[in-house]
Each structure stands twice: as C-alpha cells, then as structure tokens.
Amino acid sequence: MSSKNNILSTSNLSIGYTTKKERIVIAENLNLSFETGKLIALIGANGIGKSTLLRTLTGIQKPLSGTVLLHEKEIHKYDSLSLAQNLSLVLTEKLPPSNLTVFELIALGRQPYTNWIGKLSEEDLQQVNHAMALTQMENLSSKKHHEISDGQLQKVLIARALAQDTPLIILDEPTTHLDLLHKVSVFKLLKKLAAENNKCILFSTHDIDLAIQLADEMIIMTEKDVVQDEPCNLISKGVFNSLFKDSAITFDDKKGKFIISN
Amino acid sequence: MKEVFKSLLGENASKETWEYIIVNFRLPKAIVAILVGMGLSISGLLMQTLFRNPLAGPYVLGLSSGSSLGVAFVILGAGLLPSFLSDFLLSSYGIILASCLGSFMVLIMVLFVSRRLRDTTTILIVGLMFSSFTGAIVGVLTYFTSAEQLQKYTFWSMGSIGNISWQNILILGIVTIVGLFLSILTLKPLDALLLGENYARSMGLNISKARYTIIIATSILAGSITAFAGPIAFIGLAVPHLSKLLFQTSNHKILFWSTLLIGAIIMLFCDMVSQFPGFDFTLPINAITSIIGAPIVIWLIVRKKSIQ
After folding, report:
1. What is the pLDDT, as a whole number, of residue B74?
2. To the nearest whole angstrom, how far is the Cα of B115 from the nearest Cα of chain A?
3. Contacts of residue B194 in chain A, CB cutoff 8 Å?
4. Could you tell me the pTM of the whole model?
5. pLDDT of the residue at B306
6. Which residues of A touch B54 (CB under 8 A)?
7. Of A198-202, B73-77, B89-93, B137-141, which range is least confident?
8. At A41, phi and psi to the nearest 5?
9. Residue A248 and residue A114: Cα distance in Å, rounded?
C-alpha cells in the first residue's frame, strides 16, 4: 500500500468520539490510502459517520486510536501553516455575508503563502489566475460571490482550494443543492483536476450512480465495515446492496444503479 | 478664517481671546473628535467581522457599558481605598486601565455567549442585557457613594469630547495609535474570517490567537476612548457600514483606511453640529451621534430582512 504516490494514509485507525461517560466508536481498523492523481468518493448513508471520518482525516478531530499519516508524518504533528500548504478544504457550510468578489475569494486561498499583511506576490497572482483558468471563472472574477449561482459558487470554492496549491483536496458533499447538469460539471472538473494536475481529491457524496461512473476509487461506509476499492470491483463484490438498510432498495449490477422495488 | 490659521500657526491673531479659544478649546476638541471617530469606527469594523454580525459595535454590544462599570468602580469606589491607591486610580492612567478592563470583560462574555448562539440578532439582545446589568450595578454603587463622587461620575457619563487637557490628549493619542497598530496586524486574519472560522482555520490561521488580538485591540480602542470621552453611541456601528457602502468591498486593507477617514470626518461633523455656529449653546455629542446613528441601524435591520 505504501507507494511513492501515497499522500495520505491511515493505519488501524479508529474513529469516533469520547464523552465524559463513554467512548463511541464509529468505525474501527481503517486502513485507507489516498494516492496522487486519484479521484476518490466517500459514500455512506446519512448519519453513518462520513463527517467524522473527514474530520479525522483532516486533523480537526483526534482519532480514538491508530494514526493518520500525511506524507509519512502524523497529521497532528503538522503546524497549522504547513498543514494548510498540504491540505485544502471545500466545506458545505454557507459563507457569511460579505462583499468579497470571486477574485478576492479565490485569492484568499493564497493566505498560507502571503506575508503578514496578506500582499499577493507575482507568484500568488499566477496561482490565482491559474486556478481561475482551470475552473473557467475568468469572466466572473469581478462579480460579488453572492451574485453568482450555487453551481458557479461551488466552482469558485474549488478554485480557492486550487489556489491554495495543495497536493490533497478534500470536499464535503460538493454537489448537494445542484441540478444534474451542474453536478456532472463539478464531477468532471474534479476528475480533470485529479488526472491532469496530479491532485489527490477526496469527496463525500450521495450521488452514488454518478460517483460510480467518474471516481477512480470509492470508500463505502456501512455499519459493519469500511471498504476502499475501484467501483467495478465494489459492484462485483456486491457491496452496494448492503449500503442501505431498507431491503426495498437493491443494486442492479448490470445497469449500475439502484432499483426500488415494492 | 485667516485669523484661525494665523493662531494655529503660532502667529498672533488680531484678538487675543480668539487665539485663546482656538488653541485651548477648539483645536484640542477637534483632535479628540478625530481620535474618537477613528478609534470607535475601527473597533466597530473589527467586531463586525469577528462576530460575523453587521450590527456589532462597541456601544451596541455593551462595551461602553463595561467601560462605564470599570470607571464607576474606580470613581465611586476610590473613597473606600487607601489614599495612595485611590490617587493612582483617579489619575488618567487608572481610569483608562479600568475602562479598558471593563470593555475587555464584556467583550469576552459576549464572545462566550455568542459562540452558543447562531442567530446574529440575538447577540444584540445579549449586549443590551449586559448594558442593563452594568447599569444596575452602577445604580447600586451610586447608592453607597458621596454626593461629590457621584457628581464627578455623572459628568463623565454624559460624554464630552471637550475640556480634555493637552496632557490627556497625548495619552489618548498614544493609546489610540497602539490600538490602531494592533488592528493593522489583524487585517489578514480578518480577511480570512470572511469565509467563516472553519475555512480560516483550513488556510492556516491560528484562530484563537487572531481572536485575542482582535479583542485586545478593540478593548484598547473602545476602552480608552470611553475613559476620556464617555460612552459615545453608534459611531462604531454606523461608520464601518458607511465605508462598506461607499467602497463596495469587504477587503479589510481598503476598509481599514476608509473607515479611519470616514470615522474622523463624521465625528468632526457631529462635533460641529453640537456646537453650531450662531448658537451659543452646546448640545451633548451623544445626542448628535444617536440622531445620526440610530436610523442607520434601523435601516440596516430592515434591509437585512429583505436580503434573506
């Protein structure tokens, strides 16, 4: 598992949280690995612990046991600045109201590199323009972020993460609230970024059928275990059938999608 | 007009009384107005971004009341202390210190409460409660104090930017500059906080350090100004909005300078109105700032509803 391309990996990781009285384990013995150039989808039913896994992988939350290694070094041993230069995030939360323009928002991604007052250097500007070109946001650059559509805003947030220039990008449900057209265009953008810019991109999603078609690997979280594999292997193993507890939802291997039977 | 410049430049104006009035009353008052306008406006700008709340400001969130409480403790309680201590406390430094500490405490409490509340308008109610609470404590203190000290406190609390000695202006000026300098250090973190704390953290920002720098800068500015000029309403809330409206940006590097400038202009204007040429009475500065500021707040709340 430990190849040169490995950016992030976990060994015997247990996730969950401890309250005063008890220890709640969400998943145990996770051995996952995330390599450059791969688009990886995280799938699981609501409340199964996707967010906890993402929070643990990004170092926000401590693991119950085991380790998360970023470039062979424990993620908790990074200081906040060098972590920000290795890992960027796209979150689901709504942005607070402000007058930030698209350009300014994307340029904020350069904060880990700028000086004490936040002045953009020549290289910073280049990175920002590069990020805007990759996401095709150039013609929106002077628009205010609250003036653009949800689909465009999602791409702006992805561009901000790109400007942060990190080998690893983690996105939390980037396609919720988007219509099919924009879902597909966000997914294709992520796929392109992973393949052509050698990023490792991990995202959680509920759009399983789209993820099966586009992701290089998938991580399936169920109550029993957590599996990481390529989508076609996961289909032949029949993992998707156990994804939801409802027996009326079954997975059709040939069509590659879920069927609802009455 | 010519005479005014003459006396400012140190030459003798034609009437000695004019020179005396300009150098010892009007000029100090104008300088204090500028310092107060700049300091309060910047502290409002910092608080609005920190609390992600367009309605935050030193007066509305109860910082001024916190300062009042600190000063009340010093002025009204000084009689109970040994004389060398009370002498220090009643000096300008003692009052500044008490005032800054008072606003710092209130700010910490508001921050603590606001982390439990997501709704931005509720924070205003919390600020209001702190104001009533500190008001009540001051009320209790006055009950136990002598008439002379009470009079001293009452004059202070009415708020005035006149009658401040050159020495105190120097102290106020230095403290304000320290506060403004600290604020400049927070401009980059403030920009990051525009995306919310989680994004800011993911971009390498040390949130708690940034938060404390912002709080300390705000308390120094609001506290020291309240110590000398008394509680002044709405400037800290209204001016950052005017500058956001005028410049249509959220970039704090631009907002800082524009807020500084507009704050000084508005406060000078309020001072001018309070001592209008041709009238021989002087209105309290607080009345003028409230007349201008309160409608702005109402307008902001109404406009915010229509956006959401």
Report:
1. 84
2. 15
3. 95-96, 98, 100, 108
4. 0.89
5. 42
6. 97
7. B89-93
8. -105, 140
9. 54
Q: CB A111 to CB B205 under 8 A?
A: yes
Instruction: Note the pLDDT of residue B229.
Output: 87
Please name the amino acid found at residue B176: T
- How far from B247 is each of A218, B37, B39, B51, B251, CA to CA, in Å? 47, 19, 20, 21, 10
Q: Which residues of B touch A98 (CB under 8 A)?
A: 194, 250
Min Cα–Cα distance to chain B from A153, Å: 13
Strands (E), chain A: 6-18, 23-30, 33-35, 39-44, 65-70, 73-74, 87-90, 168-172, 200-204, 217-221, 226-229, 249-252, 257-260
In this structure, the number of other CB atoms found within 10 A of the CB of residue B84 comes to 8
**Do the chains contact at A111 and B204, CB–CB below 8 Å?**
yes
Give how far B177 is from chain A: nearest CA, Å. 18
